[in-house]
């Protein structure tokens, strides 16, 4: 005998479970009164949850209904009904037969820039409608953007959206949202705003076209550090889309692209028109912090401003290059003098150096077992007394407020999301990654100093990489960015905030 369908409110017949999370279930259902398919979201928190927590969750669901009900835009999921029955709360919504953007990227890889510009335009329209109604979404991210096969987009989950005339939902005053998509201004304690939604849209676009979230790391602390300090690396985005992303990811919200400015640039991309240049308030380099913003941000990231080996993502798909694995070079063509650290973008290539020779600026070198720098024992943004020289170890650090020769100004773990027994990717692959990473990091430091600085990147040797699990002296699988004064006179003070 066929099992009778569960009926909610004597109206909605539950047909199949579409998804389940810690706090609820989403059903495909049939509205028997109107004869249409709907998505029915059921609040279903775990047993034993405190009454106060349950009330917050229920209020979020009610807020989702009220907020979406105020917004009339084709990219906003329509809410039809809200039902309370037998102690349960249900939300009847438009059924969207589509994958979310996070799943699309996971299953099909990085998205084309023109395709992404079209998706972003639709999300932008939904956000403009919300912002005009006094509503801030607060959780724009790939998993909240549904993309149908015909390209139509729906922005979902207004459950934590905040209207200017509504009280905060968090009873403890905490920040609500997904850390990797939060803007620096939100993390610094400012209220969510249209500008913070636009930042999240920029992060979402970067995730989609690069295939990986630009700021998400292995811990919350390193994620916050990345948001505050690491400009996104955009290798697959077209130049025009990269400008939009960087404009949206300007740290200072007063200089961030507005919705109107972003729309103009995105329309040009979709139409194949000449690129619209970034306006003066935006920044093609990821933006700079105003003094006030920097002070507030600093208060948030005390203790996490520098994390040795903080994961750095956003690079091309990992393809091992065994042809040069273990070699001590990995340089590309560049000026012969290698002295472009005062503003150029080229890296130098040089032959093997004699022991004791200074390592040139912008020449990738190796560190660790058998490397150009055979031992490296400093981390974070620590300083060391001596300069980098061929064959000399760097074993001990000195306080950065005392005279010193070099400073480690950044570090990244390129394959942070892969097992530690992953094969050595090859010096050339690591060198290419490091040149891009250290160049971007140096751009954020150089304007703070009136001195001509040299800098370079260090990559681990194959032996160093493979010794990661050595119990006595574990190897390192990170890349390092090191700087010094170009005239090799002593530095006095840290160049990293």
Describe the structure concisely for a colleague:
By secondary structure, the chain is of the alpha+beta class.
Care to describe what's here?
With 497 residues, the protein is α+β, with helices and mostly antiparallel strands. The chain has helices at 51-70, 101-108, 113-132, 184-187, 194-210, 220-229, 239-248, 259-271, 291-300, 427-445, 462-466; strands at residues 7-8, 12-20, 24-31, 36-43, 79-85, 88-94, 99-100, 135-136, 145-147, 153-155, 162-163, 365-367, 383-384, 406-412, 453-460, 479-485. It has three domains: 7-94, Phosphorylase Kinase, domain 1, CATH 3.30.200.20; 99-162 and 179-300, Transferase(Phosphotransferase) domain 1 (Transferase(Phosphotransferase), domain 1), CATH 1.10.510.10; 306-497, no CATH class. 27% of the residues lie in helices and 16% in strands. Strands 1-2-3-4-6-5 form a six-stranded antiparallel β-sheet, with helices on one face. Strands 12-15-16-14-13 form a five-stranded mixed β-sheet. The chain has a three-stranded antiparallel β-sheet with strand order 7-9-10. A hairpin with a 3-residue loop joins strand 1 (7-8) and strand 2. The longest helix is centred in the first third of the chain and has 20 residues, at 51-70. The N and C termini lie far apart (71 Å).
């Amino acid at each position: 005998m066929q099992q009778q369908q569960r009926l909610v409110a004597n109206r909605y017949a539950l047909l199949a479970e579409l998804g389940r999370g810690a706090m609820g279930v989403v059903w495909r259902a049939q509205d028997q009164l109107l004869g249409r398919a709907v998505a029915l979201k059921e609040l279903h928190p775990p047993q034993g949850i405190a009454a106060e927590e349950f009330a917050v969750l229920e209020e979020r669901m009610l807020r989702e209904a009220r907020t979406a009900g105020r917004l009339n835009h084709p990219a906003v999921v329509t809410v039809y009904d809200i039902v309370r029955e037998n102690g349960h709360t249900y939300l009847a919504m438009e059924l969207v037969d589509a994958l979310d953007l996070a799943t699309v990227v996971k299953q099909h890889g990085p998205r084309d820039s023109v395709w992404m510009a079209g998706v972003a335009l639709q999300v932008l329209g939904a956000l403009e409608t919300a912002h005009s109604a006094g509503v801030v979404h607060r959780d724009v991210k790939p998993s909240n953007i549904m993309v149908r096969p015909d390209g139509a987009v729906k922005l979902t989950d207004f459950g934590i959206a905040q209207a200017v005339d509504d009280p905060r939902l968090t009873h403890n005053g905490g920040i609500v949202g997904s850390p990797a998509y939060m803007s620096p201004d939100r993390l610094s304690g400012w209220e969510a705003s249209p500008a913070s939604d636009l930042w999240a849209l920029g992060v979402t676009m970067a995730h989609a076209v690069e295939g990986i979230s630009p700021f998400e790391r292995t811990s919350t602390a390193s994620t916050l550090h990345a948001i505050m300090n690491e400009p996104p690396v955009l290798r697959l985005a077209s130049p025009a889309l990269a400008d939009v992303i960087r404009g949206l990811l300007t740290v200072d919200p007063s200089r961030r692209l507005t919705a109107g400015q972003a729309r103009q640039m995105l329309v040009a991309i979709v139409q194949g028109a000449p690129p619209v240049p970034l306006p003066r308030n935006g920044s093609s380099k990821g933006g700079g912090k105003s003094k006030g913003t920097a002070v507030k941000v600093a208060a948030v990231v005390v203790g996490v401003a520098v994390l040795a080996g903080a994961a750095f993502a956003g690079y091309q798909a990992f393809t091992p290059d065994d042809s040069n694995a273990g070699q001590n070079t990995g340089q590309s063509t560049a000026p012969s003098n290698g002295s472009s650290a005062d503003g150029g973008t080229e890296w130098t290539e040089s032959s093997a150096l004699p022991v004791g020779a200074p390592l040139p600026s912008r020449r990738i070198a190796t560190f660790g077992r058998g490397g150009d720098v055979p031992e490296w024992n400093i981390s974070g943004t620590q300083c060391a007394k001596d300069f980098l020289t061929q064959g000399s170890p760097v074993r001990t650090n000195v306080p950065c407020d005392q005279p010193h020769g070099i400073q480690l100004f950044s570090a990244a773990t390129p394959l942070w999301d892969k097992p530690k027994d992953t094969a050595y990717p090859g010096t050339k692959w690591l060198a290419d990654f490091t040149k891009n990473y250290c160049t971007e990091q140096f751009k954020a430091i150089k304007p703070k100093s009136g001195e001509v600085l040299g800098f370079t990147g260090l990559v681990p040797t194959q032996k160093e990489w493979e010794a990661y699990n050595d119990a006595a002296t574990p190897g390192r699988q990170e890349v390092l960015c090191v700087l010094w004064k170009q005239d090799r006179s002593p530095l006095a003070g840290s160049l990293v905030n």
